[in-house]
Known about the structure:
Number of strands: 6
CATH topology of the largest domain: TIM Barrel
Distance between the termini: 29 Å
Strand content: 5-15%
Shape: globular
CATH superfamily of the largest domain: Metal-dependent hydrolases
Structural class: alpha+beta
CATH class of the largest domain: Alpha Beta
Largest sheet: 4 strands, antiparallel
CATH architecture of the largest domain: Alpha-Beta Barrel
Amino acid sequence: MDFFDEPQHLHVHVIAERTRRWGRQGRVAVGHCTELAALPPAELEPILSMLVESGIGVIVLPATDLYLMGRRDERNVRRGLAPVRRLLAAASLSPLRPTTCGTPSPPVGNANLPLMGFLLAVGAHMGTTQDLGQALAMLTQHPARILRVPDYGLAVGCRADLVLWETERPEEIVAALAPPRLVVKAGRITVEHERGHQGALAG
């Protein structure tokens, strides 16, 4: 929703009102929201507060949004992403998801979630270690909370669903697109690549 270069719709107001009216706080997520990036700070801040109060998550689709937004701009072409850094600062859960691949929008991609984190880091100027950690959380922790997945994480007693990447630092999963070594589902190895020796875990 609200998938335009200019704030022509802002249906997020209606979604938030109905989320509160129907008692669905913490159970609603909206996708794209690129219109929010076109708002001046004074108009954006009340919407961010509304999203937080309504418990609404924002799903960012960097491949689609970078490919489609700003196409009519002849100079200073806009990046067309939702204001991710502002959303994170406002504590609105912002998961990343892969876009449809091999279609006209965009005609590239392979549904690789770390690649979405890489694109977000570039497109949203998220280059510090903390920023990259946030981008990784948008692939792991934030979606789990929006989906209300119980027992999620890397702790004793959590479900044994995880991916092991070949890197010593978690931020390199996004920053360097470190290759995956193992995928474990319900305690069983479902994918295994023989390449390296050291790795970082993410639930």
